[in-house]
Amino acid sequence: MKLTKKTHACVRLERDGRSLVIDPGGFSEEDAALGADAILVTHEHPDHFNEDRLRAGLEANPAAEIWTLRSVAEKISAAFPGRVHTVGHGDTFEAAGFDVQVHGELHAVIHPDIPRITNVGYLVEGSVFHPGDALTVPEQPVDTLMLPVMAPWNKISEVIDYVREVKPQRAYDIHDALLTDLARPIYDSQIGSLGGAEHLRLTPGESAEL
Prior knowledge:
This protein is of the alpha/beta class. 19% of the residues lie in helices and 28% in strands. The chain has helices at 51-60, 70-76, 156-166, 184-194; strands spanning 2-5, 11-15, 18-22, 38-41, 65-68, 84-86, 92-95, 98-103, 121-124, 128-130, 144-148, 170-174, 198-200, 207-209. The strands form two sheets. A seven-stranded mixed beta sheet has the order 6-5-4-3-2-1-14, with helices on one face. It has a seven-stranded mixed beta sheet with strand order 7-8-9-10-11-12-13, covered by helices on one side. Strand 12, helix 4 (184-194) and strand 13 (198-200) form a beta-alpha-beta unit. Helix 3 (156-166) runs parallel beside helix 4 (184-194). The longest helix has 11 residues, at 156-166. It starts with a strand and ends with a strand.
């Protein structure tokens, strides 16, 4: 698979001429979902779910479909009947030729006074895991972990312990739009030296072969 990092939490996976995009939100590029054959959305927060970007992707490719949780599906399914699929923890499906498993149920705690919403993570081809806004540990080994490094709901000790618990071969930074260039070397050093996995970072638009 080819992995392309988009801004913040959005990534694109490509294989055999087909592409799957995860979380083309409001912090991502306006064209983040264009060209996608399948789109996965982890939850309803605007940095992960942007209706305009989803609509652009579905309108550009009449065969494109979306898999997401109910709170997002309810916002867009009426406009695209039959193309928006609701999923939850434990579900498995095929999207654009990619085998996908759904893991997780709740968003991480931002603050005890803020109600937790639903959040799901996606394990693609039994290899690449995108957790959305949670530190969900899949029930099987993960080769490549998309690692949320900077968010209102986490701190670096939790990020390091998450890498240790998942035990991937490699971890690529996502959820990093709030992380300044001044702080990146600190995160790179601490996660890289303490996480126990190869820690990698792609700039928006940069790709890697998995």
